[in-house]
Amino acid sequence: IRVRPLTCTETRRGDQRVVHSLGDGTVHVSAARHDATFGFSAVFDAGASQEAVFEGSGMRQLVELAIAGFSCTVFAFGQTGSGKTYTLMGPLTQSESRPAAPGLLGLMQRSFACLLEQSRSHGSDMALSASYLEIYNEQVRDLLSSGPPCALPLRWSKTCGFYVENQLSVDFESLEAITDLLLRGAEPWVQGWGHAEARSGGARAQTQGLGHCCGPQGRGGGQSITPPMLIPQPSTCPSKQGTLCFVDLAGSERVKETGSSGELSVEANNINRSLLALGHCISLLAKPRGKRMHIPYRDSKLTRLLARSLGGSGITLMVACISPSSHCLSETLSTLHYASRARRVTTRP
Fold it and tell me: Which of 32, 172, 214, 341 could form a disulfide with 178 if both were Cys (CB 3.0 to 4.6 A apart)?
């Protein structure tokens, strides 16, 4: 759980701070008619730095597992303005000409730096590539392709599960190169924001890094949601491929809170359906294995792409971002209950 600071607007409005970290992964919500305590793997209060979140959330270990051949996923959940994108990417004001200060870099850039450090130690035995997707109004679009965005089909295979057909993957060998890709892909939806979040569709941006490793210990590891490609491996050398996927989910607030109308209202409803499908899958996965029924991953394109991450062979970190303001109490409690359910999900990597 990450609790953001009160904003200037909330302070001027006189909002009370109703969320408090008690230490040891415990967060307490105290307000009129509400008094609840929740336990999580870690809780980062308003004063926590980006570096503290990276180290304390287990993100470094997740990078190492991806390099070892596992399918790893990080997704940020919470209402609009709770700090999801800041946690993953850092400040939205950054650009190629005005990069963010090192201390403000998010989980993605820090993970890329860690990946590149490991890549250099592996030498030519390891290659890295990345792709960048957006699910917008239940259409999957490639944010790295040139020209106007077009919808890409989702396919299923026995070896890869759900994957995006014709998805563009780009090799990278430096932090500057992957950061440029990240900013280039993010530009359309940063420019297109409306009253709340004008360009979201269940998962506003999904960035995936593929690491192909080749070495004497290499055996078939976790599969990627895209078919193995780009990096030819010597036939005499066993290989393994791991993935590290970041998902910036759309805001989880109710449609009436977004101030959307017309086309944006239709989009907000699509977002809610997508997140509802995700919540339904998480609720079913949280049940004991003997009591589970069919998990409806096919209910949305978001849950199809996250099927392996949620309940299959992958390893997943969920960062639930919340506001401490009394004005956001309802959404904060909803997010905490949602995260509590997600915590009960177990996978078999």
Answer: 172
From 190, 208, 8, select the one nearest 94 (Cα to Cα): 190
d(CA 61, CA 273): 33
* Domains in the chain: ranges and CATH: 2-93+102-194+218-343 (3.40.850.10)
Binding-site residues from annotation for ATP: 78-85
Contact assessment for residue 328 and residue 17, using Cβ atoms and an 8 Å cutoff: no
The answer to pTM > 0.90 is no
Q: Is 82 helix (H, G, I), strand (E, B) or coil?
A: coil
Query: Tokens 């290989």, residue?
Result: 239
The token pair at 135 is 């699910």
- Annotated binding residues: 78-85
Identify whether the C-beta of residue 152 lies closer than 8 Å to the C-beta of residue 206: no
Q: Which residues contact 276 (CB under 8 A, 6 or more apart)?
A: none
Q: CA-CA distance, 81 to 10, in Å (whole number)?
A: 12
pLDDT, tens only, 79-115: 989 999 899 988 877 777 778 888 999 999 999 999 9
The answer for residues whose C-beta is within 8 angstroms of residue 19's C-beta and 6 or more apart is 3, 27, 28, 29, 322, 323, 324, 332
Count other Cβ atoms within 10 Å, centred on residue 214.
18
Let me know how long the chain is.
349
Kindly report the backbone phi and psi dihedral angles of residue 144, in degrees, each rounded to the nearest multiple of 5, phi listed first: -100, -10
Give dist(CA 153, CA 42) in Å, integer. Answer: 37
- Place 54 in a pLDDT band, splitting at 50, 70 and 90: very high
